[in-house]
């Protein structure tokens, strides 16, 4: 009896322990179910898509200027590379970079020894030929007298015909020698003139008024003019500068000779220089498959502020209008047939309207017909989508 009673007591204890172990599981399941219901009630709904926000702008009265922009480099309008026409050792270079020189000033000297020797030889040859000419002329005088005497004796039948013919031939030979000597003298004189010119080229003079902007040769350097003319220095007139702007092929039809232009430099962005287009070069420059045309503008540079190879931003003024209706350029739409239109805000909503425009730039466009000041137009194709609200995200699904 005692063992059975203990066995019954042990069995009931096991049942109670199983019931206690299931209780936490039910609590956890109920908690999860409650959390799921709360999450669905708060995050389970799907937000409706927001209506796109419409950006608008009013038609205003203002001023507009249409321009084309380009990057440019500067060079002096007039400059010359001063070289040497003869070979030799460069003895001296008189000016320094930045010096102002006048036309005719002595710039450099080349060793003249070789050319002085040639000139002296030419003069000696010329003197020799002139002496030979004087001798030949004296001989011709004698030969003429002998020929006259022989012809007179033949006429008086006192001399032979052979003697008369020989005397006549001798006179003609003397005349021919004189002609040959005169030709040699002319040839030697030409050689002397050329050598004198080369001797003069050993002194290099300034061909124009200007400023020495660069020196490429050095004193003591041997210059060889037989292959190409060596450059000694460059003189430029810095009083007038030429701005070379590179304009894209899409904008070049808008620019003509005489188009007003203004530019500023990197060092002086607040100062504006003004000029007009002098020339549009017909041959383009291709940079990274982009076709660019050089447009030249001359500007005075009295204070010498502008320098060679400065970078400038050029603005070509295509036209301007003051006190006209303006709308943002983003509001104007152009069809394939060229007609232009805008979307105008009305009480019934945005409505398309055909307009006629005038000047235009990247930000604003002039309206000639179709709009009145104060009306509201839609920018772009109707607006930009509104951003999604930045709220908490839906939690991940359980299970």
Average pLDDT figure: 84
Pairing-aware structural class of the strands and helices? alpha+beta
N/C terminus separation: 52 Å
Strand content: 35-45%
From the 3D structure, determine the CATH topology of the domain at 69-75 and 238-320.
Elongation Factor Tu (Ef-tu), domain 3
Helix content: 25-40%
Describe the sheet with the most strands: 6 strands, antiparallel, barrel
Strand order of the largest sheet: 2-9-13-11-10-14
Radius of gyration: 51 Å
Overall geometry: elongated
Please tell me about this protein's structure.
The protein is α+β, with helices and mostly antiparallel strands and 399 residues long. It is built from three helices and 19 strands. The chain has helices spanning 2-43, 113-155, 161-201; strands spanning 56-58, 60-83, 88-93, 100-101, 106-110, 203-205, 210-215, 222-223, 231-248, 260-265, 273-280, 285-287, 290-300, 311-328, 333-334, 340-346, 349-360, 364-369, 376-378. The strands form three sheets. It has a six-stranded antiparallel beta barrel. A four-stranded antiparallel sheet has the order 6-5-3-8. Helix 2 runs antiparallel to helix 3 (161-201). It starts with a helix and ends in a 21-residue tail after the last strand. Residues 1-11 and 382-399 have low confidence and may be disordered. Keywords: Coiled coil, Membrane, Transmembrane, Transmembrane helix.
């Amino acid at each position: 009896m005692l063992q059975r009673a203990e066995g019954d007591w042990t069995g009931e204890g096991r049942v109670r322990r199983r019931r206690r172990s299931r209780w936490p599981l039910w609590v956890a399941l109920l908690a999860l179910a409650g959390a799921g219901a709360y999450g669905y009630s708060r995050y389970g709904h799907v937000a409706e898509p927001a209506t796109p926000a419409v950006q608008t702008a009013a038609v205003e009265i203002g001023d507009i200027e249409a321009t084309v922009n380009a990057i440019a480099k500067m060079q002096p309008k007039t400059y010359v590379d001063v070289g040497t026409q003869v070979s030799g050792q460069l003895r001296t270079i008189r000016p320094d970079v930045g010096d102002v020189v006048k036309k005719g000033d002595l710039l450099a000297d080349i060793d003249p020894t070789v050319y002085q020797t040639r000139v002296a030889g030419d003069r000696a040859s010329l003197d020799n030929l002139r002496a030979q000419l004087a001798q030949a002329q004296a001989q011709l005088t004698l030969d003429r007298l002998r020929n006259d005497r022989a012809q007179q004796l033949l006429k008086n039948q006192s001399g032979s015909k052979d003697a008369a013919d020989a005397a006549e031939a001798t006179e003609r030979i003397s005349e021919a020698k004189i002609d040959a000597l005169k030709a040699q003298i002319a040839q030697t004189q030409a050689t002397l003139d050329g050598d004198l010119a080369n001797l003069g080229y050993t002194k290099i003079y300034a061909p124009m008024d200007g400023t020495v902007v660069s020196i490429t040769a050095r004193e003591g350097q041997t210059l060889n003019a037989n292959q190409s003319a060596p450059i000694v220095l460059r003189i430029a007139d810095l009083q007038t500068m030429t701005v070379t702007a590179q304009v894209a092929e899409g904008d070049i039809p808008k620019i003509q000779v005489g188009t007003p232009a203004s530019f500023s430099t990197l060092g002086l962005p607040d100062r504006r220089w003004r000029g007009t287009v002098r020339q549009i070069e017909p041959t383009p420059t291709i940079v990274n498959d982009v076709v660019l045309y050089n447009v030249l503008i001359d500007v005075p540079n009295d204070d010498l502020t502008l320098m060679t190879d400065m970078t400038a931003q050029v603005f070509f003024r295509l036209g301007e209008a003051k006190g006209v209706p303006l709308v943002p350029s983003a509001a104007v739409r152009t069809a394939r047939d060229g007609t232009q239109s805008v979307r105008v805000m009305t009480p019934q909503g945005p409505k398309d309207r055909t307009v006629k425009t005038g000047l235009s730039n990247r930000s604003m466009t002039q309206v000639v017909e179709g709009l009145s000041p104060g009306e509201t137009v839609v920018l772009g194709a109707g607006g930009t989508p509104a951003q999604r609200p930045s709220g908490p995200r839906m939690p991940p699904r359980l299970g």
